[in-house]
Amino acid sequence: MSTSGDDHDHEHPRNELSAQAKRIYAIRDLLLEKGVISEKDIQDQIEYQEARSPANGAKLVARAWVDPAFKARLIADPKAACAELGIDATALNEFVVLENTKKVRHMVVCTLCSCYPRPILGRPPDWYKSFNYRQRSVNDPRGVMREFGLVLPDDVEVRVHDSTADMRYLVLPLRPKGTGGLSEVELARLVTRDSMIGVMDALPKLPET
Amino acid sequence: MIHPATGRFRPGDAVRVLNEHRPGHIRTPFYIRGKTGWIERVYGDFLNPESLAFGGDGLPRRTLYLVAFKQGDVWGAAQAPTDKLFVDIYDHWLEPASYGGQRDEHIR
Fold first, then answer.
1. Which residues of A touch B64 (CB under 8 A)?
2. A with B: how many residue pairs have Cβ under 8 Å apart?
3. Nearest partner of A202 among A120, A125, A100, judged by Cα
């Protein structure tokens, strides 16, 4: 990258690897060369990472919406509740479920890095790791929610959780009104990833397919 | 793995976050240092990440708390009066305090 007189406003082609990417590939090659890990280990890990998705979280939320006893167990012992639904949360750090109500909304951030309940939600979105979100979520959560389309009245309390340490947080969004006729599987489709981070509510109705 | 809590604080205790600047893998964000809030939940004892990050054994374990702050106490009066910020903070980053503001009822 040029450092002098290169402040033009067009973009350079992006086919060059970044310094960070080059470093990652160099480390990978060294680990393979020295036999610390194998190609198969890497592939297995990629598949494991990709297999975890927000669908796990949506399943938990939908079950909690239709089954109050399950909801109570999910809040009291989230890992055991995951096991009930066949979701492997054993790799997860300790895990806390934050229940939204009509008067309280929760929102989760990790201002220090990108701590995230990955076994339940998969990989965090890029915006979750951005400096913008990490900075503004703690001191302007209502502004961030507005940008996601959620405008809260003043009498709703906003609780931001900065997951700085060993706990991981999942927001249990409110069940939208008028969804009494939906099945548990249909309800799960209302539960977006972003609603479980807490920047917005669950979808009010089934998306058009 | 959580071990039973051995720390100094109980739910409802007012605490102030130490305003210290130490090098290393610190899990206490800068913006919350020096601020006063209260213990919302006691999570238990965990290996100390400040030691683990540098190949240490993480011992002695440190008690981790969910500490609650009023947004107005952290960022100023422009914040919505009901809104709160919760941060997970280890025992050795806290000191007893007296909390003058009004404390809301606890989550649980």
1. 165-167
2. 69
3. A100
Helix/strand/coil (H/E/C) assignment for every residue in B11-51: CCCEEEECCCCCCCCCCCCHHHCCCEEEEEEEEEEECCHHH
Sign of CA dihedral A115, A117, A122, A124: negative
Q: Where does residue A159 rank: exposed (0-12), middle (13-18), buried (19+ CB within 10 A)?
A: buried
Query: Looking at the domain covering A54-197, what would its CATH class be?
Result: alpha beta
Q: Boundaries of CATH 3.90.330.10 in chain A?
A: 54-197
ipTM: 0.92
Candidates A139, A155, A159; nearest CB to B86: A159
Reading chain A (209 residues) residue by residue, the pLDDT tens digits are 444 445 556 665 567 889 999 999 999 999 999 999 999 999 998 898 888 899 999 999 999 999 999 999 999 999 999 999 999 888 777 889 999 999 999 999 999 988 899 889 999 999 999 999 999 999 999 999 999 999 999 999 999 999 998 899 999 999 999 999 999 999 999 999 999 999 999 999 998 87
Domains delineated in chain B: 14-92 (2.30.30.50)
